[in-house]
């Protein structure tokens, strides 16, 4: 079962996952974003804060969808994503 967290109502809603969306894949593998359905490289994916399986594990989403999720949660998505990129470069 796939569900999407609604940050306004603070409840999960039933969600129809795009074909090709995954929880995990191999580096370099092409996957589909669980949010918008766009194809992209698994290496560039983020763990969704909203789209979860029944155990609460997040599906892979693209950078644009992840930024929207951060904004929905009240974060400064532009600032946070810049920090994440810096952190990845130095680790
Ligand atoms: Zn997306």
Q: Taking Cα atoms only, what radius of gyration do you get, to the nearest Å?
A: 13 Å
Strand content: 25-35%
How much helical structure, as a percent, in the residues? 25-40%
The coarse silhouette is globular
What is the count of distinct domains?
1
Q: Would you tell me the overall average pLDDT?
A: 90
List keywords for this structure.
single chain; 91 residues; alpha+beta; 4-stranded antiparallel β-sheet; two-stranded antiparallel sheet; 6 strands; binds zinc ion
Write the layout of secondary structure elements.
Blueprint lengths: L1 E5 L4 E4 L15 E3 L6 E3 L4 E8 L4 E4 L1 H10 L4 H13 L2
Helix pairs in contact: 1-2
The chain binds zinc ion (ZN).
Zinc ion (ZN) binds next to helix 1.
Characterize the structure shown.
The chain is α+β, with helices and mostly antiparallel strands. The protein has one domain. 25% of the residues lie in helices and 30% in strands. It contains two helices and six strands; from the N terminus they run ββββββαα. The protein has helices at 63-72, 77-89; strands at residues 2-6, 11-14, 30-32, 39-41, 46-53, 58-61. The protein has a four-stranded antiparallel β-sheet. It has a two-stranded antiparallel sheet with strand order 3-4. A hairpin with a 4-residue loop joins β1 (2-6) and β2 (11-14). α1 (63-72) packs across α2 (77-89). The relative contact order is 0.18.
In short:
This protein has 2 helices and 6 strands; from the N terminus they run ββββββαα. The protein has 91 residues and is an alpha+beta fold. The longest helix is centred in the C-terminal third of the chain and has 13 residues, at 77-89.
């Amino acid at each position: 079962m796939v569900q999407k967290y609604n940050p306004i109502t603070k409840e999960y809603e039933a969600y129809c996952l795009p074909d090709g969306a995954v929880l995990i894949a191999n580096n370099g593998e092409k996957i589909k974003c669980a949010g918008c359905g766009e194809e992209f490289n698994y290496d560039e994916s983020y763990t969704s804060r909203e789209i979860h399986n029944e155990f609460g594990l997040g599906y892979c989403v693209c950078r644009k969808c992840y930024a929207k999720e951060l904004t929905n949660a009240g974060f400064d998505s532009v600032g946070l994503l810049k920090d994440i990129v810096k952190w990845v470069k130095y680790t």
